[in-house]
């Protein structure tokens, strides 16, 4: 009998708790559509849920301070797991998986994102770097002293192991590392504000700099779409770098395992009652591959 998909509001997430979970997937959608993930991404979420995953979908937030979203996500993880465990117990479901340490080598916790949501996951991965490196040393050269000081202040009193994404595979769908255009959905207005010297934190150049410095992203897979004009752009900018996030990541982060689905545009993951079954199958396949890779380490 097919398990019914039902979302519950738990600790600022919409959570579909599986009665016998094989893993937990934390999901972040793209701008606007990700604000209502249970509607616009329902088909993909349902396919993953039917495979046995509990899904925690965080509504996308429009903001200029992308660090604040990343920091909120990591700081809330422990409380979210506890809250899901309590609800699972109340429902009579299996709950042990929520009591395990996500950074243990049991491959139970995964991160899935689409479009600009991938930037937030990338920032989470970058924060994991701070377990082994000084904050100012790692961040300062890329984002400047003001941003790095703000992050250091936000992390004061936090055990970095509690915010780590170690041993938690990432799957990126049509990844976009964007600037202010992700916070302001009107392109002309975004360009005007950019010309005034305002942008998100961290901006595209800063984020790319940090990714280049990182030694992580080894448990990361990505799916690109052949007709995507938002995440993919082979043109070269004035600094000699690809304009498209997909092309830039392929060039600078060869550890990310890329696959491409043909005849699809940027919004391929969207769907409510029906959706892209081949894409769902590809995500499920990548989850299994990343699980096997982690188990073999």
Shape: globular
Low-pLDDT runs of 5+ residues are none
Q: Specify the CATH homologous superfamily.
A: Alpha/Beta hydrolase fold, catalytic domain
Mean pLDDT: 90
Query: Helicity range of the residues?
Result: 25-40%
The run of helices and strands is EEEHHEHEHHEHHEHEH
Provide the domain count.
1
Please state the CA-atom Rg, rounded to the nearest Å. Answer: 18 Å
Number of helices: 9
Class computed from helices, strands and strand pairing:
alpha/beta
Distance between the termini: 36 Å
CATH class: Alpha Beta
> What is the CATH T-level topology?
Rossmann fold
Instruction: Tally the beta strands.
Output: 8
Taking the sheet with the most strands, its summary is: 8 strands, mixed
Query: What is the spatial order of strands in the main beta sheet?
Result: 1-2-4-3-5-6-7-8
In what range is the share of β-strand residues? 5-15%
* CATH architecture descriptor name: 3-Layer(aba) Sandwich
Question: What is the compact description of this entry?
Answer:
The chain has 297 residues and is of the alpha/beta class. It has nine helices and eight strands.
């Amino acid at each position: 009998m097919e398990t019914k998909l039902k979302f519950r509001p738990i600790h600022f997430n919409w959570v579909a708790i599986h009665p016998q979970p094989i893993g937990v997937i934390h999901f972040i959608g793209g701008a606007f559509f990700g604000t209502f993930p249970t509607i616009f991404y329902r088909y993909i979420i349902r396919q993953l849920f039917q495979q046995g995953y509990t899904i925690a979908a965080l509504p996308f937030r429009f903001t200029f301070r992308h660090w604040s979203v990343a920091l909120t996500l990591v700081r809330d993880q422990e409380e979210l797991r506890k809250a899901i465990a309590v609800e699972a117990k109340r429902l009579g479901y299996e709950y042990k998986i929520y009591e395990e340490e996500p950074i243990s080598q049991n491959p139970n916790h995964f991160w899935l994102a689409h479009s600009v949501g991938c930037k937030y996951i990338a920032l989470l991965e970058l924060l994991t770097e701070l377990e082994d490196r000084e904050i100012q040393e790692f961040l300062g050269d890329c984002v400047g002293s003001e941003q790095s000081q703000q992050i250091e202040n936000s992390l004061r009193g936090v055990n970095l192991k509690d915010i780590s994404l170690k041993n938690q595979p990432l799957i990126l769908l049509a990844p976009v590392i964007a600037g202010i255009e992700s916070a302001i959905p009107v392109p002309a207005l975004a360009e005007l504000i950019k010309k005034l010297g305002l942008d998100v934190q961290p901006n595209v150049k800063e984020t790319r700099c940090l990714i280049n410095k990182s030694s992580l992203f080894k448990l990361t897979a990505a799916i690109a779409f052949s007709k995507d004009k938002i995440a993919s752009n082979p043109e070269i900018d004035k600094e000699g770098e690809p304009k498209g996030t997909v092309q830039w990541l392929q060039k600078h982060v060869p550890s990310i395992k890329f696959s491409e689905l043909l005849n699809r545009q940027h919004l391929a993951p969207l769907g409510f009652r029906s959706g892209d079954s081949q894409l769902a199958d590809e995500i499920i396949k990548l989850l299994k591959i990343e699980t096997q890779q982690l188990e073999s380490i």
